[in-house]
């Protein structure tokens, strides 16, 4: 039960078989991995804060999934979840992150100087550039499990840290429950405002409890650096701007994140991170870098090419509509971003986006000119 | 109150173990030493003091928010029921759903029978507000399912299109929908389905499990207006009642389609007796007979319904305590429905109107769903009689208006008899 830990033993009055969920119609990573034997072995365990296996899997039990989209179906309630329930989460991670093994090490690289190029994506095609990730504050429970007091603690620490940013990162915090109507409208117009989650994937895990208490949005005065507090993760950090200068976006992203981390450390707090899983976030799909770097780009011709899907796959990129995940592209404009999160560093992932988008734009120009793109086909990265 | 609960729990301990059958069966053994495994009195996880955890209820308008002061929160926040249910869990739905300026929702639920006892300092004032002054501390709730006491109850079919009585029942010893484990929910299903299978005559029927029904069965149940869906109301989903859907949920109805039981929706069971036309008397007779039969059948196996003399039948939502009964008709009142005195007449008769789509719907045309306002403090017989007398009065008014005669607002009837 979200936040609760006092009835963790109630289910022990029944056998594992009696409690095992019916996953016969399910198609998500959790359901593929959770055998009755595994359930029996893990069901009497809990993390130090009292998060149990049933808490981990509730969202996956409640949301059987879609025949074509494979959702993760489990969440972490705290940092220790990934350790206590590794028998479940390691195979889920391996399946979701392209074969990432329990013994693999993840490389973190937030040095923007290591990015080659990226400052010259053609703004006639690349309409906007954006990089996002998440961060969790070590010692606090994650959104599925945190109490109101913890969530407020996270908000307080975050607002304090963000309040110390200066220069082009100087900004302001807007608490969801205190914002005025004008502030709200401005945030909507800027496409910054996030709403109470409606996706049953999130609701079933308990992340929307007590909304909008301790939730808010911080952004810098220039509106190019944005932090969401207590939505799906403790912090979601976004750097973005119009046009194709991904280098600048990534620069600001790295600088901002590094500064925020320093400010937290000054107060005796650090981000959840380890050398195996990288940055630890609520959903296993966001482990490692938690990074999605992408552009909104006009590709009306390339997107109709029969090999579009194959090209993206080789470039390790994915497409979405410009409304975000699960939306369709409108007017030939696509959201193109890295498909991977874990097992590659931040620099490597953004490099793939920069190089891949450059190629896609070149292909688009070729097709516009009536030329073939056969000799531009990339190798599998 | 506490001692009666202790007695109930200890009598359950004397119940014999149900046999645990072999592989593939979900029959549950009811362990004599159940309390060994239960986290009775487990420490609630607390890093912050109650003042840091107290919810922000400034924009809230529900019964829970009206009565959950910081002092009450501080007193109760570290308590747990024997099953481990906590205050934060009980109030979560009210924290998540601030309410509506015009509709006052309850804003809290019970996770088990003991919730009403352990969190009485909050439940009691909420119950008092919701049930118009009924005080669980010093009042007793009468239960009366003797349908022979009903006078009249056969309405003119020209006005009354259908008649219906519903209530809920909870199986003592098993957690309620906000808190139950999957195995507990499956046990509720098994206990109730076993009992229903023992019904005979005009009550004989069939169970349709939500996980196993065929497409044809599903379509038939939709056409009969019997099928219930996964709750979408955030009032219910925030309380955790939709977990593991559709596991262990189902619908049972008799062959004649006049007696229907929902299993594991908002309560362990919801029991509905209904038919077309105005024979409320027969609907209530079947209702009482069916309920008493089901109770007898579960008692044969060592189970009983949650009930006590202060709160009557125990259900998930405090608004359904007592009788949990809503008896109503769909009635056509073209003239009275437009009369400005209609709301006051209903009020004095202790009736409420809804649209024919159920709570929160508007009336379509001239047909209204008219039912009893009260649930707790009066017996089933009393409430159904109130509906019968009231609907008779409404039909009389309609007839008077048809004849061009004037109508009178009746004197308000008393609430607690």
TrEMBL record, chain A:
<dbReference type="GO" id="GO:0004111">
    <property type="term" value="F:creatine kinase activity"/>
</dbReference>
<dbReference type="InterPro" id="IPR022413">
    <property type="entry name" value="ATP-guanido_PTrfase_N"/>
</dbReference>
<feature type="domain" description="Phosphagen kinase C-terminal">
    <location>
        <begin position="125"/>
        <end position="367"/>
    </location>
</feature>
<feature type="binding site">
    <location>
        <begin position="292"/>
        <end position="296"/>
    </location>
    <ligand>
        <name>ATP</name>
    </ligand>
</feature>
<dbReference type="GO" id="GO:0005615">
    <property type="term" value="C:extracellular space"/>
</dbReference>
<feature type="binding site">
    <location>
        <position position="191"/>
    </location>
    <ligand>
        <name>ATP</name>
    </ligand>
</feature>
<feature type="binding site">
    <location>
        <begin position="128"/>
        <end position="132"/>
    </location>
    <ligand>
        <name>ATP</name>
    </ligand>
</feature>
<dbReference type="InterPro" id="IPR036802">
    <property type="entry name" value="ATP-guanido_PTrfase_N_sf"/>
</dbReference>
<keyword id="KW-0418">Kinase</keyword>
<protein>
    <recommendedName>
        <fullName>creatine kinase</fullName>
        <ecNumber>2.7.3.2</ecNumber>
    </recommendedName>
</protein>
<feature type="binding site">
    <location>
        <position position="236"/>
    </location>
    <ligand>
        <name>ATP</name>
    </ligand>
</feature>
<dbReference type="Pfam" id="PF00217">
    <property type="entry name" value="ATP-gua_Ptrans"/>
</dbReference>
<keyword id="KW-0067">ATP-binding</keyword>
<dbReference type="InterPro" id="IPR014746">
    <property type="entry name" value="Gln_synth/guanido_kin_cat_dom"/>
</dbReference>
<keyword id="KW-0808">Transferase</keyword>
<dbReference type="GO" id="GO:0005524">
    <property type="term" value="F:ATP binding"/>
</dbReference>
<dbReference type="InterPro" id="IPR022415">
    <property type="entry name" value="ATP-guanido_PTrfase_AS"/>
</dbReference>
<feature type="compositionally biased region" description="Basic and acidic residues">
    <location>
        <begin position="96"/>
        <end position="110"/>
    </location>
</feature>
<keyword id="KW-0547">Nucleotide-binding</keyword>
<comment type="similarity">
    <text>Belongs to the ATP:guanido phosphotransferase family.</text>
</comment>
<dbReference type="GO" id="GO:0046314">
    <property type="term" value="P:phosphocreatine biosynthetic process"/>
</dbReference>
<feature type="region of interest" description="Disordered">
    <location>
        <begin position="96"/>
        <end position="122"/>
    </location>
</feature>
Automatic annotation (TrEMBL), chain B:
<keyword id="KW-0418">Kinase</keyword>
<keyword id="KW-0496">Mitochondrion</keyword>
<dbReference type="GO" id="GO:0004111">
    <property type="term" value="F:creatine kinase activity"/>
</dbReference>
<feature type="binding site">
    <location>
        <position position="225"/>
    </location>
    <ligand>
        <name>ATP</name>
    </ligand>
</feature>
<keyword id="KW-0067">ATP-binding</keyword>
<dbReference type="GO" id="GO:0046314">
    <property type="term" value="P:phosphocreatine biosynthetic process"/>
</dbReference>
<keyword id="KW-0809">Transit peptide</keyword>
<dbReference type="InterPro" id="IPR014746">
    <property type="entry name" value="Gln_synth/guanido_kin_cat_dom"/>
</dbReference>
<feature type="binding site">
    <location>
        <begin position="354"/>
        <end position="359"/>
    </location>
    <ligand>
        <name>ATP</name>
    </ligand>
</feature>
<keyword id="KW-0999">Mitochondrion inner membrane</keyword>
<dbReference type="Pfam" id="PF02807">
    <property type="entry name" value="ATP-gua_PtransN"/>
</dbReference>
<comment type="similarity">
    <text>Belongs to the ATP:guanido phosphotransferase family.</text>
</comment>
<feature type="domain" description="Phosphagen kinase N-terminal">
    <location>
        <begin position="45"/>
        <end position="132"/>
    </location>
</feature>
<protein>
    <recommendedName>
        <fullName>Creatine kinase U-type, mitochondrial</fullName>
        <ecNumber>2.7.3.2</ecNumber>
    </recommendedName>
</protein>
<comment type="subunit">
    <text>Exists as an octamer composed of four MTCK homodimers.</text>
</comment>
<feature type="binding site">
    <location>
        <begin position="162"/>
        <end position="166"/>
    </location>
    <ligand>
        <name>ATP</name>
    </ligand>
</feature>
<feature type="binding site">
    <location>
        <begin position="326"/>
        <end position="330"/>
    </location>
    <ligand>
        <name>ATP</name>
    </ligand>
</feature>
<feature type="domain" description="Phosphagen kinase C-terminal">
    <location>
        <begin position="159"/>
        <end position="401"/>
    </location>
</feature>
<dbReference type="InterPro" id="IPR022414">
    <property type="entry name" value="ATP-guanido_PTrfase_cat"/>
</dbReference>
<dbReference type="InterPro" id="IPR022415">
    <property type="entry name" value="ATP-guanido_PTrfase_AS"/>
</dbReference>
<keyword id="KW-0472">Membrane</keyword>
<keyword id="KW-0547">Nucleotide-binding</keyword>
